[in-house]
Amino acid sequence: MEKYLNKIINADCLDILKQLPDKSVDLVLTDPPYGIGFGTFNRTNKLKNGKRVKANKYKNSDWDSEIPHDEIFKEIIRVSKNQIIWGGNYFPELWKQGCRGFIFWKKNNPCLNFGAGEFAWTSFDTNCKCYDYNYYGNIEGNTKAEEKIHPTQKPIEIMKKCLVDFSKENDIVLDCFSGSGTTAIACHRLKRNFICVEKDYDYWKASCKRLEDEQKQGTLF
Q1: Among residues 31, 62, 141, 149, which is most buried (max CB within 10 A)?
Q2: What is the DSSP letter of 79?
Q3: Mean pLDDT over the full length of the chain
Q4: Which residues does residue 131 pair with via DSSP β-bridges, in sequence order?
């Protein structure tokens, strides 16, 4: 456990999960790929060589081509005391566990063809929560959305809300699909320990730089 604490690791999450003892993690907070093909989706819906291609700034990748298999979710539940898994509606394995304390993030998207929000499955036996947070800054336009390095990057404030509501200082928080490193940054700001795992080398490298910049920023004040 010690060698992984407060690091973003470039690895397959299943390899790391199998090394962790039972219930050694206080909270899994993660946002897995949903298997909806985002990595190859083209905003203009055109095809190239018979395949959908992207027309945005993110690199082509197969990171979202498949949903995580059931073994990963079984390992997540084995190693952790509690779990918050974004996109939980895409993962049938989770619903076998039941869900009472789900989270809904109301995005207030300005475009009607975008989703109104996102859903997170949780293991908590509590009332459901709604996080009302504008994805594109506030309604008056006085704040800007965070610069994104990953197409499904969660706002830091959303991950912070999860940590404030469902964890405490010095807890160990695991993110098996770290992506842009947002969970690591939220944990750093709220004094939680973290173990983050990202398989894609380019996203791992970019997220490490993002975390390093955040940590340097903290030393200035």
Answers
A1: 31
A2: H
A3: 84
A4: 105
Q: Which of 58, 16, 69, 38 is nearest to 175 (CA)?
A: 16
Q: Residue 100's Cα: distance from chain center in Å? A: 20
Contact 178, 8 (CB under 8 A): yes
Angle between helices 182-190 and 201-218 (to 10 degrees): 20
The CATH superfamily of 2-32+67-218 is: Vaccinia Virus protein VP39 (3.40.50.150)
Reported as a single tens digit per residue, the pLDDT across 180-218 is 999 999 999 999 999 999 999 999 999 999 999 999 986
Identify the CA nearest to 184 among candidates 30, 45, 13, 22: 30
Report the alpha-carbon distance of residue 23 to residue 77 in Å, rounded.
Answer: 8
SS (H, E, C) 50-61: CEECCCCCCCCC
pLDDT above 70 covers a percentage of the chain that reads 78
Using 50, 70 and 90 to split pLDDT, how confident is the model at 49?
very low
Which of 218, 174, 155, 24 is closest to 84 using CA atoms?
A: 174
Kindly tell me if the per-residue pLDDT of 145 is higher than 50: yes
How far apart are alpha carbons 93 and 21 in whole angstroms?
22
Query: Rounded to an integer, what distance in angstroms lies between the CA atom of residue 35 and that of residue 62?
Result: 10
d(CA 131, CA 106): 6
pLDDT at 63: 55
Tokens representing residue 188 in the block: 């750093």
- Residue owning tokens 């908590």: 124
Domain boundaries, the chain: 2-32+67-218, 36-60
